[in-house]
Amino acid sequence: MAQESSPAAKTGSTLIPLIMLLIVGVVWGAIFTVNKAAAEAAVPPLAYAFWSIFIAGVAMAVLSLIFDGRPKLGPKYLLFYFISGVANFGFAIILFAYAAPKLPAGVITLVMMMTPTMTYLFAFVLRIDRFRTASFLGLILGIIGVLVIVLPEFSLPTREMAGWFLLVLLGPTSFAVGNVYVAVSRPPEMPGLMATAGLCLGAAVFILPVLLVVDGTSNPLTVSSEGAATMVIAAAIYCITLTFFFEIIRRAGPLFWSQIGYISVVSGIVWGIIVFGEQHSAGIWLGAALMFGGLALVNSGVRAAAREESKAPAG
């Protein structure tokens, strides 16, 4: 999920943002279980990806028209909608939809912990951020966790699953690109609901031609009631997650939001256990622990940098 550039220092209680973070963490963690349910209901992956994000975009556009007024549709805004939509959702949800029947939902959820790590890597390479020992060690620890999980004889039962796990790592890589792009490119005058609607519809515009080429005969009215339900539930998850995302950023800042990684991964694993009765090997849990440690180190480096920046004299 994208993170905006740091706003002005936040004041006041963090109780409300904390409650919101817990809610959205549980909700977002369910998306991978819903993806798997859609696959089991025989919903074509591209159709599922397109209709769920399109429904979310239309719903958020209606809310934006009610609360934000006339949409911003100039060239720079349309470009922002499209690029942020592709990076933050369009590419990743296609990838996750195809991977859903190939991997346990809890295992796919683990890759989300790599998003802050990959974001730091891109920010460092692009010189948006500087070298920090804690964050670099977190990057290394996260990579070790990934290697532990993809060893078929130790963690995943088949080599094919290992290949799919490595492929879905492109998801957090895409999110990281979106993080950096939104941090430097979101127009400051753009309201949160409008940004959410534009992001969802931008992702839908990206997916639509791929859908038409690969599965042009797909019709959402022909899917089963279970399949239709997964699309609606996924759309609701996208709406809730993105709405809370912008509000938490507004109230408490992006560093507070970054803790979503811990909550959503735990909830994603729990959702997989509850809904599908998934069980994971010792290797999966060891890899998860290493990735959690890496995420903690990356976030500690970010917090240290924020403290240094707040103490620096104004230039």
Describe the model.
With 315 residues, the protein is mainly alpha-helical. It has one domain (15-308). The chain contains 14 helices and no strands. Helix 3 (45-67) crosses helix 11 (225-252) and helix 4 crosses helix 10. The longest helix has 30 residues, at 282-311. Mean pLDDT is 78; it is low at 2-12.
Give the total of domains.
Answer: 1
Helical fraction: over 70%
Distance between the termini: 31 Å
> What is the makeup of the main sheet?
none
Order of secondary-structure elements: HHHHHHHHHHHHHH
Average pLDDT rating: 78
Query: What would you call the shape?
Result: globular
* Number of helical elements: 14
Question: Beta-strand percentage?
Answer: under 5%
Unreliable sequence segments = 2-12
Please count the beta strands (DSSP E, at least 2 residues each). 0
C-alpha-based Rg, rounded: 19 Å
The helix-and-strand class reads mainly alpha
Task: Provide a quick synopsis of the model.
The chain is mostly helical and 315 residues long. The chain has one domain. It contains 14 helices and no strands.
Short key terms for the protein model shown above:
315 residues; mainly alpha; disordered N terminus
Task: Describe the SSE topology.
Elements: H1 15-29, H2 31-40, H3 45-67, H4 75-99, H5 105-110, H6 114-125, H7 133-150, H8 159-168, H9 170-185, H10 192-215, H11 225-252, H12 254-257, H13 260-276, H14 282-311
Helix pairs in contact: 1-11, 1-13, 2-11, 3-4, 3-10, 3-11, 4-8, 4-9, 4-10, 6-7, 6-9, 6-14, 7-14, 10-11
